[in-house]
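call fold(seq) -> tokens
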Amino acid sequence: ALLVKLANRFQSEIVLIKANKRIDAKSMIQLMTLAAEQGTTLLLEARGSDAQSAADAIEKLFKEGLGDLDALPNTAAP
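ret:
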């Protein structure tokens, strides 16, 4: 839920890829179908005006162990 909430702060298209499966990181249902357990390697793809900010924020979320989203800075465009 934290990933979906963070991804929705950005206007860019954000996709997670596991093997050959691509999902919209802004969709909780699609994220659940990905079935990515701890330790799974995922590829992050972001396209759009704030793609770099989105990728940086999502990378930080994962590096911090999917911690408290409120602790992350709000880097989304207004």
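The radius of gyration is 12 Å.
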